[in-house]
Amino acid sequence: MMQAPDDELTVQELNAQVRTLVHFLRALLRQYGQGLRHYGPLMLVLALLAVGGSIFYSWQSAKIFEGKALYAYTSLQRKLYGEAIDNVNDLLQARSYSQLQPILHLDRQQLSTIKSIEATNNVGSKLADDLTENNAKIFYLSVKTTNQQVFQRLDTVLERYLNQNIAVQELQQQRVAKFKSAITYRQKELIALDSLTHAYTASLTKPGTAMFSTQKDPVSAQALLEKGERITEEIADMQSFLADPRAVKLQRPFLVSEVPVHKSAFKIAAMAITVFLVISGILVFLLPHLSNRPHAAQ
Questions:
Q1: What pLDDT, in 10s, does the model give residues 138-157?
Q2: Which domain holds residue 179?
Q3: Where are the transmembrane segments (predicted)?
């Protein structure tokens, strides 16, 4: 019960402070409005300059080209590719262009237009932190640059950079040697299987002289044919790898529809209004004091 008067007094004080603040803001706005009317021509020029300056700044400021490309890989953990891309991005942020030139084969001016490069997995998480492996074997690279020509080349530039990794190259060389040996073996196996199939087919035409009689594991022409097709497919897959032994391959490049990203009209208008309010406010409250100073001196 003893706290009620204090509480009521506190509320009254708060209301008084709110009223004081409202009166102050009204007086401020009234003075600002009077200043706008008094310095009408100057404010009109200022408004035109604010709008024109904002449009000019937006037009001259660099356009941002950004997009996401899809890559497939066959060797190593994708975490290692994420770490390689993070290393490139760190060098870009540090503006260490001299270290990037020999690995990306871009000049300093082109490198300076790249704002960021990010590697993510198929669920959008950071690739360098991904220790999982799945059957998809894909990842994404997102880039931002102010140069359209660099943007159009960057997907293949990054693909080449990842394939030039020493660990990737060593592993791919081992796989090339392994596949060449396997192809030779499979081709010999296919020749032997082809001879066996012909001999088996010929034996069926001579009653009583079949090479393979019905036993516990009878041989059929269908089984021999399927095995031959399977070996042929394996050889074709390995030959396809040898024809293009890259570990990382671009699957979907940056889409043209994703670029460029321009500043919106709303942002331009917001910039113009902000510039006008700040400068006009300073002039409205500063000019009267400057004009009164000579009179005060007299």
A1: 899 999 998 888 998 999 99
A2: 169-211+218-246
A3: 39-59, 268-287
